[in-house]
Write a structure and sequence with these properties.
This protein is α+β, with helices and mostly antiparallel strands and 68 residues long. It has a single domain, classed as Roll (Ubiquitin-like (UB roll)). The chain is built from two helices and four strands. The chain has a four-stranded mixed beta sheet. The chain is globular, with a radius of gyration of 12 Å. The mean pLDDT is 90.
Length: 68
Amino acid sequence: MIFKVFYQESKAEVPVRECTHSLYVEAESEREVRQKLKEKPFNIEFVQKLEGAFLEYEQNHHSFELEK
């Protein structure tokens, strides 16, 4: 499964929409995504499972780069 993760660059940052970044992670569950990213200094806002038309749309987007 592929998940889209919305995050801030630093755990000290207050979530502000204009500063939110996203990345794509391949994992079996949201829990596994969070485990994979726990060593990074990210403030994870939201983890969204992508499937169907949503996944297809994101894959066709210019910034789609999958982290494993």
